[in-house]
Structures are given as C-alpha cells and as structure tokens.
Amino acid sequence: MTTGRCETSVMPILAPNLDCIANSLAERFHKLYGTSARIFLAPGRVNLIGEHTDYNDGFVMPTAINFYTWVAVAERPDRILNVYSEHFGEMVQLYVAALGGPPRKHWSDYVRGVAAVLQATGRTVSGANLMISSQVPLGVGLSSSASLEVSTALALLAISDLESPPLELVKICHQAEHECAGTRCGIMDQFIAVFGRADGALMLDCRSLAEQILALPHDIRIVICNSMVRHELAAGEYNRRRADCEAGVEVLRQHLSNIRALRDVTLADLQGYKHLLPQQIWQRCHHVVSENQRVLDAAEALRSGNLPGFGRLMYESHASLRDDYEVSCAELDLLVKLASTCEGVWGARMTGAGFGGCTVNLVRSEAVDSFRSRVTESYQKATGTTPEVYVCAAAPGARAWQPFVG
Ligand code: GLA
Hints:
This protein has helices at residues 18-33, 108-120, 144-159, 166-181, 188-195, 234-253, 267-272, 279-303, 307-323, 330-340, 368-383; strands at residues 38-47, 59-60, 62-75, 80-85, 90-95, 128-134, 201-205, 211-214, 220-230, 345-351, 356-364, 388-392, 399-400. It is α+β, with helices and mostly antiparallel strands and 406 residues long.
C-alpha cells in the first residue's frame, strides 16, 4: 500500500496489507498504553457447505478468510487485564483472580471466557494490556467471535510464557464460547480459526476431527454478500435448533440403539421413523442428515472439478436451511435468488448460523465485478438497504505477527 492510511475495513479487498495494519495497531497501542506490543491475529471464516452439522458430529467445509481479528498485547506486573476494543471504543478491566460468572452479553465475555478457561486448565495467566482491532464484520456469520477468542488466547498464552498444542487451543476457545457467551456452538469456527489454510477449504469431520484440504480452482472467487440484517432471535434460536436435534436423536435411539448423534442416521432411517417424530423435529433432523450427505458430495464434486455440481449442492443446502431448518430470512433468500440469476455464479447459499448475516457465493473471477453491481443494485432496490460485498481469499490460521524484515 502506498498511501499513509492502511485499509482496515473489509470492503472489497483481496489482499489487505497486513504489515501496514500491524504497524498502525502497534502505534495506536503505544499511544494508549505507552509500551510496545506483541501482535497476534486469527482469521474469520466462511462456511462453503455443511451448516448446523458440526454439533451433530457431522461434516463441514469452512475456509478461513483473509479478514482477521488482531490483538496487540503487553504484559503488566499485576493480575489485571485491561482490554480495549477499537470497534466499541471501550475499555474493560478484568481481574485474573475473578474471571468467572455467567454471560454478560458484552464483547468482553469472549476475552474473559478465554482467560477463565486457560486458568481452569491449570495455567497461570499474567496481567496484560490488550488492544483488539477487527476486520471481521461482527455478528454476521463470519465467525468474528471465534477469531477474537483464538487471537486472544494466543496473546494471553504468549505474554504468560505458556504454550498450547493447536487442538487444545481450539477446545479451550470452544469451551469459552459455551461458558461465557452461552452459545452451545459446534467446533467448526474455532477449528478453522486455528487450522485455516491459504491453499483451500477444509472438509472437517466434527466427530473424529480428521480434516482434508480441498483446493479451490484458481479462477473462482469466494464472494460474501452481507445482507446487513441481523434478527434478534439468533442466540436463543441457535440453542433451540440444537435441542431439537438432540430430541430427535432421543426418539430415534429407542429404535436405532447404535446411534450417538444425527451423524449416524441415514435418510432411509429418517423416512422409516417419520411417524414417530413431531413434524418440526423431523424437519430439523432431515436438514442435518441431508446436509451431511451434501458435504460429502460437495467434496467429491470439488475433487473432480465439478463446479456445477458443487453449486447445485449449495442451492440445495440453502433450500434445506430455509424450509427444514428455518434459519434463513427474506433478505438471505433474496440474495441467493439474485445470485442465481447472475452470469458466472456456480452456487450461493446462506452461511453461518443464519437469521440474517451473509451469503457465500462461488463466482468466476472475471464475473465478480458484474456480480457485485447487479446484486448490490437489485438488493438495494428491493430492500432499501445497501449490501456489503466482500471478495475473499482462503487464509492461514491464527498466528503471531512476524514483521517483515527487508
Ligand atoms: C455458528 C456456530 C458453529 C456452527 C454454525 C452453523 O457459526 O458457531 O458452530 O454451528 O453456526 O453451521
């Protein structure tokens, strides 16, 4: 970047200048706290297919994206964590000795949660000054919370002179989300924030945690459309969907004694026991069971270069999330419909937990500009809201920032 300002927004940028972002964060940290800082970053993610399957021991296909949450950190001699969020323009003070307690529905829950779980593993977290800066749009299904948890965990480990194997890091952050944010989420978001790869998406088996890297063809772009809506229901409805799935397994287990989760149920099983399940529970189970199969089919389609097939599965996934799982909304449906009428689009679907947020679109690179203007214009016309469109690249997982030394 040649200008004095660096691009810290997520507006359409393919390769944000990470050096520039890190240097300017270090300067702002110095201004606030008067010391130098170490810097850590963790990516957001977009899920290509496999939605609401992770907490059913199923399959997902996320890719980390090149928008990061950044945490600058320096040790303090006491046991206080001062945490400044640039997004909220707010400073919070936490005491390492008193990190427990229920979710407060505040951004600092994620920091508090990670520090609390680290302590609970028997590690001693040092006092620290932290500054958080995020390029990941918050609360729109791109996993801003997992990227905050993971970058914070790396920062706290480093200043406390501690280490954690990467998989333990994933589990610590996952537990923090459950305990301090109160969402009974699956493991996908924390996993991809740690294990993201610049060379493609991961197909993850959320039971065994076995992963496979799936390269994306060079001439396609992952394009994310932000509907700019977030429906209030999101948190409670998420936990209710999970409870519906568990209720389905309870009933099915009386006849299929070897099942542990919906992962173990086939579509034929579901048809056979349809009469035993309340309609809504059946729909939830039908989404999950069919979505697991779609992820396996989508991986096969990518391996064999069958992009039309991959795209069809994305549209089917969206329909299932809309009709069976009921986590879409009018705005997301509209974005998917608009995408389906654009040239050069292989597939589109809502991504993340739903109830607003974003769609993910696989678009041929030369069609990205026309896609962007067509979707923006039509969505604006229909809803009065201007969507944000982000063109992303697959990105590596969380890490310490290594300044470029020329
Ligand atoms: C959220 C959760 C994930 C996953 C998705 C839906 O992002 O954090 O664990 O369940 O929703 O696929």
